[in-house]
Design brief:
Blueprint (H helix, E strand, L loop, with lengths): L5 H23 L1 H8 L3 H25 L5 H21 L6 H29 L10 H27 L6 H19 L21 H31 L4 H26 L5 H21 L3 H15 L2 H12 L5 H31 L1 H9 L4 H12 L2 H15 L5
Length: 412
């Protein structure tokens, strides 16, 4: 009797909603943390950095241990750890030194998020294909991160207005219900056996393959291109474009998430009609155009729309690269996905950091400030635009890299 894995797919989809919660909730609370606990901007920036550094650490460890466990055990643990981290975020700041309490909570749920990142993609890839569905199951699963991101932004913003910022600690408890439920769900749904790689396609062995090296670098570029705009759109809208925070958040990071969700969902449903390599090249090219429009458009509203549409451009980069490598290396197993997650998280850390560094440097350079003055921009606005402009190098490199792979006829 053929087993039905629809519930397993639903659990994977919900796992990516959990990902969206743990990555995006803390940034929405940054202002409250500053006002309540007087956190410095350096500490605030460290929260985001630690989030991705912990995930990179879990990614690297997973390359070795992931195939020695089971999908069920890893899936349950990933969701449970995310839930524990969110619960700690609600309670620990009232018990311990706030700086240590928040960071400890971030480390716990980031570990769960990193584990989810390396188990959900190979699990989805290992599930029998749904004959009633076309397109890309990988892209469809990743779309739930985007829809989850938009949902977290809208619901958290609305609830803070209703209950007041002084009761912010109820929000992590509320959001923790989703990974709690999903950990129980993962314990009961049908499961497949862990895919063990063959010797030829071990993750570290593939680093000797030029095609895989290029694919790994493209994953770095994909993570950077996505997170630069995701992390900086709100501040860029408010400080760089002079748009109010509510409008900026709705047409900046929220629109970004919605557009990313639309792109991933569309490819997840109809992607079988397109070549993934061509789709990735087109998305990277669109991202280049959006970055340039965000920086150089003469009207702030147009720049803000470009920030939002960037979500469509980056939508296929992460899941598309995973799908491309899964097709190219069918015997690689879960460790290959862990290695690609390392590349993606390196980009997620590197891209936003580079934007901040370039922004700070540009703000202090006399020649850049003169250009800004000529364009009726103050030093901060000029610096932020320079930082976003620096980020365009990542989608440009992705266009070049996809051209290299296609030219070599090594991918589909």
């Amino acid at each position: 009797m053929t087993q039905n894995f629809k519930k397993t797919r639903v659990a994977c989809y919900t796992g990516y909603v959990t990902q969206a919660i743990v990555v995006n909730l803390a940034p929405l609370l940054f202002v409250i943390f500053q006002d309540t606990y007087h956190f410095s901007l350096t500490y605030i920036a460290a929260i985001t950095l630690v989030t991705f550094l912990v995930q990179i650490g879990i990614d690297l460890l997973s390359v070795k241990f992931i195939e020695k466990a089971s999908y069920r055990v890893l899936s349950v643990w990933s969701q449970a750890t995310c839930a524990v981290g969110l619960i700690l975020l609600a309670f620990l700041p009232a018990i311990l030194v706030p700086e240590a309490a928040v960071m400890a909570s971030v480390i716990v749920y980031s570990a769960g998020s990193g584990l989810a990142e390396v188990v959900l993609s190979p699990l989805m890839e290992a599930l029998p294909k749904d004959e009633d569905a076309g397109g890309s199951p990988m892209s469809l699963m990743h779309s739930f991160y985007s829809w989850g991101q938009a949902f977290v932004i809208l619901v958290t913003t609305a609830l803070l207005r209703v209950i007041g910022s002084e009761f912010w600690f109820f929000l992590p408890l509320l959001w923790a219900l989703i990974p709690i439920f999903n950990s129980i769900f993962f314990a009961k749904v049908p499961m497949v056996e862990m895919t063990v790689h063959d010797g030829e396609h071990g993750a570290f062995s593939m680093l000797r393959d030029p095609v895989f090296i290029v694919a790994f670098l493209l994953m770095v570029f994909a993570g950077a291109a996505e997170q630069i705009m995701a992390q900086w759109a709100s501040l860029f809208a408010e400080r760089g474009l002079g748009i109010t925070k509510i409008v900026g958040d709705l047409l900046g990071p929220c629109m970004f998430a919605v557009m990313m969700g639309i792109g991933r969902t569309a490819y997840g449903i109809w992607g079988h009609k397109l070549k993934i390599s061509r789709a990735l090249t087109a998305c990277a090219a669109l991202t280049v155009v959006c970055y340039l429009a965000a920086v150089f458009a003469p009207f702030p509203f147009v720049s803000l729309l470009a920030c939002g549409v960037t979500g469509l451009g980056v939508s296929l980069m992460w899941p598309g690269m995973l799908a491309l490598c899964a097709d190219k290396y069918p015997g690689a197993g879960a460790s290959m996905f862990a290695m690609m997650a390392v590349g993606g998280d390196i980009g997620c850390s590197l891209g936003p950091w580079l934007t901040g560094v370039v922004s700070d440097i540009a703000e202090e350079l006399p020649v850049i400030r003169q250009i800004g003055t000529h364009l009726s921009l103050d030093a901060e606005q000029t610096g932020l635009r320079a930082g976003i402009l620096a980020g365009v190098i990542f989608p440009i490199l992705m266009v070049v890299g996809m051209g290299f792979l296609s030219k070599k006829k090594r991918i589909k």
